[in-house]
Specification:
elongated
Length: about 300
């Protein structure tokens, strides 16, 4: 369920450029209504950023790239310097490239609406709390894959318009507690899709020192799609503190465990009318070498 493509449609986004070259009249018409026509520029590792940024007007920028080598990194960094114009960042990076990108993104990006960072390195770099200047007021889609960011809940407290949050291949160094996640979700009233996929069973809550659950559960009024992969204890603690009355799709994968008792999950499903009334339940169990999976889906 991809929220947006990984740098796949540069020609489509920039199709307007061919019309600009037809004649002066077309050029004036197009540049006369850049917002209505949704004019945007795409910067990739193959884009000579300095030349591109000098040739065209100051249009919104989309920065896309799956960078397999160091070539192109400098152009991406140049483009990231246009902080007031950037509305999308979608980058797949190795450790060295990610280090440079993170260094360039320690300031506010006031127009940023979509963010996707994918780490292809073996030793994940931790995103510092100063990322995006600590604020993301217009962010609607956030996807981090294989990148630890312990300060993410704090950052996203400012992202009051967030619609999609996908955190995949979460390394243990990026662990955040179920309580912290529940507190974050409680303020994301527009959130419709949530994915939490942990890398290993190391990422489990400390139940001995767990704080008591709040007297009132947080309601996620817009959440419709939820995917989880991790230990059962984490999901049990998380759903104890939340309700999702509009939830209609729930995908769960548990790491291989002997104890698959899940009373809080069962209660959570019973509190979600869209699942409960359509007869959804924990009905499919699959055993694998590495993990066991339970899929909770409405019947077709």
């Amino acid at each position: 369920m991809d929220a947006f493509p990984l740098h796949g449609h540069k020609t489509e986004v920039e199709a307007w450029q061919s019309l600009v070259h037809l004649c002066r009249r077309w050029r004036n018409v197009i540049f006369g209504s850049p917002r209505r026509l949704n004019l945007r520029l795409v910067c990739t590792p193959e884009t000579p950023a300095r030349d591109t940024l000098d040739v065209w007007p100051a249009l919104p920028l989309l920065i896309w790239g799956n960078m397999s080598s160091s070539s192109g990194a400098d152009d991406i960094i140049v483009a990231l310097g246009q902080t007031n114009r950037i509305c999308e960042v979608d980058l797949g990076l190795n450790d060295q490239q990610l280090d440079k990108v993170l260094a360039a993104m320690q300031v506010p990006f006031p127009q940023l609406t979509k963010l996707r960072l994918t780490s292809k390195g073996e030793t994940p770099l931790v995103i510092p709390d100063s990322f995006l200047g600590g604020s993301a007021p217009h962010l609607r889609i956030c996807r981090l894959e294989g990148i630890p960011f312990p300060g993410l809940p704090k950052l996203l407290l400012s992202a009051t318009h967030l619609v999609t949050l996908y955190l995949s291949d979460i390394p243990h160094s990026g662990y955040f507690s179920p309580e912290a996640m529940a507190a974050l979700l409680s303020v994301l009233s527009s959130l419709e899709s949530l994915r939490l996929l942990f890398r290993s069973s190391q990422s489990r809550p400390d139940r001995v020192n767990r704080r008591p659950s709040p007297s009132k559960r947080s309601v996620l009024p817009s959440l419709k799609w939820f995917s989880f992969e991790g230990v059962i204890e984490y999901l049990e603690d998380l759903v104890t503190d939340i309700d999702a009355p509009q939830l209609n799709s729930l995908y769960i994968t548990f790491f291989r465990q002997i104890n698959l008792d899940h009373p809080q999950l069962a209660q959570f499903i019973s509190r979600s009318p869209s699942l409960r009334d359509r007869g959804a339940d924990v009905s499919y169990f699959h055993s694998f070498d590495d993990h066991a999976a339970i899929d909770t889906l409405p019947p077709s």
